Amino acid sequence: MSAARICVFCGARAGHNPAFAALARRTGRLIAEAGHTLVYGGGGIGLMGALADGALEAGGAVIGVIPTRLIELEQAHPRVRDMRIVKTMLERKTVMMESADAFLTLPGGIGTLDEVFEVLTANQLQFHTGRCAIVNHAEFFTPLLTMLGAMVQDGFWFDEARSRLIVESTPERALAALAPG
Prior knowledge:
Layout: E1 5-9, H1 18-33, E2 37-40, H2 46-57, E3 61-67, H3 70-73, E4 82-86, H4 89-98, E5 102-105, H5 110-124, E6 131-135, H6 142-153, H7 159-163, E7 165-168, H8 171-178
Parallel strand pairs: 1-2, 1-5, 2-3, 3-4, 5-6, 6-7
């Protein structure tokens, strides 16, 4: 993929498995090394912090988007120079979507799911055509993928839209799959 702005959704918490933080850091590094710009939620802790650290350590460009209310809670990353301060979570998602060419999802919580579902809905309705990938590391997203399959099977989600969702087990494979084909 030529240089792109890759938006990554992931947890503001690190979770219990240290492999998730290592995954986030590696993903940030891979994005930077490929010459892409990282767009993310602006946090300096949890998986978000590890993601940004990986990109920054590799000399990459990083755009953070964080609501004023979360600057302290998510500890806005102090080394991200392009930090866009917004008022609401809805505005955060809008700015992240408008700032990105493609989307990658790593493990996270309910906020991460909210973000990825926003993109999947916008993609299905053709409000945004950016490709979307999920890194199913350690089968973290397998229950969600089963549910998405049931939505298709039962006629609540179009198979065509589901087929556009890229699912890979590593960030390397996910980033390669995001490349236009």
